[in-house]
Structures are given as C-alpha cells and as structure tokens.
Amino acid sequence: MVQHVDPRHRSLMAEILAKRTAMPVKEAAAGERIRPGHVYIAPPNRHLLVNADGTLELTQTELVHFVRPSADLLFESAAAAYGERAIAVVLSGSGKDGSMGVKAIRKTGGTVIVQDTHNAEFPGMPGAAMATGMVDFVLPLDDIAPALRTLCAVPAAR
Questions:
Q1: Which residues, other chains included, contact 43 with Cβ-Cβ below 8 Å and sequence gap of 6+?
Q2: CA 136 to CA 147: how far, in whole Å?
Q3: Which of 101, 110, 116, 149 has most Cβ atoms within 10 angstroms of its Cβ?
C-alpha cells in the first residue's frame, strides 16, 4: 500500500489500519518476504516494489508524478511479479498516480478496482485510472473490501 504523505512526518497509517482489520499491518522493510493476509505500507519518501521472488524492495529513486512513494511503481512491479493474480486498488487521491500502473496490471491479465469518484474525497487518482479504460470495477468505498474477499477466495477442494 502506498499513501502520499509529507516525507518530513512519520506516517500513522499502519497504526490506524491495524485498529480496523484483523490482518497484521506494518510498514514495509526492504528484503522482507511477503506473507499472505498481511498489509505492507510504503514508508514515507520510499517507493515500494514487489520482486518476483516474493520480497519487498524500497527505493528512493526519482519522483513519479511528483510523488514518492508511487502507486504506479508498486502496480507495475506487482504486474511483473504476479501477472494475472495481481489486483490493483486505486482510492481517493489527487493527481494521476496509479494510472500507468493500472495499465500494466491489465496488460498482464490482473484486475483493477477503482473507488467511485462520487464518494472519493479527492477524485483525481480514481478519475485518472478510469480514464485509462482499463478498470474492471468502479465501486463505492464500502464495497471494495467485500469485492477483494470474493476475488481472493480460495475455491473449495473437491
């Protein structure tokens, strides 16, 4: 997960999300192995990437669309690592970060979910993602978690 925050301030997102979900939530660490059912948040001023070997990478390379961390870089790396199993979710935010990344997700057969701009506080990012024409679902915020649960459900063994 990436959130655009002022790099001079510590992010409280991990603590806030941890109070609202039973899943473990933490700030991502370089080289950390991704575990199912865990939430990893990009530290301020670091791009978060997913490697094909299932580890996380943090970089401080150039800004993308004037931001670091960048949703585009996260989505592009997830598309390369997971292909059709990748799912991108674009929530409320200003600017167009994420729009290039959703194209990468769709081109590898992954799924793109975007928050409905009508209930997004900042409709820029969801609107830019929708403008790509590569969005599978446009949902109100409250419908995104149930959609993710459905998409990630493991079929029962026969």
A1: 11, 27, 28, 58, 69
A2: 11
A3: 101
Using alpha carbons, list the distances in angstroms from residue 122 to 56, 71, 79, 101, 131. Answer: 28, 15, 25, 19, 15
Mean pLDDT, rounded, for 119-125: 95
Q: Is the pLDDT of residue 158 over 80?
A: no
Supply 158's token pair.
């026969």
pLDDT digits (tens, 9 = 90+) for 124-142: 999 999 999 999 999 999 9
User: At a CB cut-off of 8 Å and minimum separation 6, what does 46 contact?
Assistant: 58, 59, 60, 68, 69
- The C-alpha atoms of residue 32 and residue 35 are separated, in whole angstroms, by 9
Of 122, 99, 124, 123, residue with least CA distance to 112: 99
Q: Rounded distance, CA 130 to CA 56, Å?
A: 27
